[in-house]
Amino acid sequence: MTTGVSGPVDPALLRRDQRERRSRIVRAALRSLANSDYERVKVSDVARDAGVALGTLYRYFTSKEHLFAAVFLEWQEGLKRKLAKPAPAGDSERERVRDVLHRTLRAFQLQPQFYRVLVVLQTTGDPYAAEIFQSLDKIFAEIVSPAFEGPFDEDRKAVFHVLQAVLDQGLRSWIMGRLAIGDVYARVDEAIRLIYDHPPRVS
Questions:
Q1: Judgement on whether residues 97 and 21 belong to the same structural domain of the protein
Q2: For residue 172, what are the contacts with CB-CB under 8 A and spacing of at least 6?
Q3: How would you write 66-116 as a 3-class SS string?
Q4: Per the database entry, where does the chain bind DNA (predicted)?
């Protein structure tokens, strides 16, 4: 659902009170999604819980997809902080990468509705939601990259993108009921084994 307005207020240009209001809306939507599925969450309920008028909400977010893109970004930033403490476990790069991906899988396993939002955003027609979606890969790379030894060079970026694709496909199959969650973990482990048993230049 879009509102026909020309565009939302640029977050970088908001006054302090406006930033706080926008954050309050995002937090209210985050709470709603934590307790329900994306399809069942009503934007009007989010506005009510945030203590703002529906029209006010749409001054900050052009659509439900735009709002929940911001919500997913907030959730992913929280996941990044959570996975940084403790640092990835393991004596080798292979073990640390496995630890980070397993902990990421666990987060989606506990709250699958957040992955469903990610699937929605992959095909969004809202340019503002799409802009936020484009930033998510960078944040996930920041989550995984501490597990690597040395710089996040082209070889490690290639490893990251392969494992990200395996993770994404596994989670998508899981939420569609085509794959058990244990099989998603197994596919990630198998991809890691194949990469690190036959590395190009990755340690």
A1: no
A2: 115, 119
A3: HHHHHHHHHHHHHHHHHHHCCCCCCCCHHHHHHHHHHHHHHHHHHCHHHHH
A4: 42-61
CATH of the domain at 25: 1.10.10
pLDDT in tens, 137-183: 999 999 999 999 888 899 899 999 999 999 999 999 999 999 999 99
d(CA 174, CA 179): 5
Q: What burial class does residue 55 get, using C-beta atoms within 10 Å of its C-beta: 0-12 exposed, 13-18 middle, 19+ buried?
A: exposed
Q: 57 and 109: one domain?
A: no
pTM equals 0.87
Looking at the structure of the chain, the number of domains it has is 2
> Which of 21, 116, 113, 106 is closest to 59 using CA atoms?
21
CB 116 within 8 Å of CB 171 = no
**79 and 94 both lie in a single domain:** yes
Q: What are phi and psi of 145, to 5 degrees?
A: -60, -30
Q: Is residue 115 part of a domain?
A: yes
Domain that holds residue 111: 67-197
Does one domain contain both 54 and 73?
no
* CA–CA gap between residue 72 and residue 119 (Å, rounded): 11
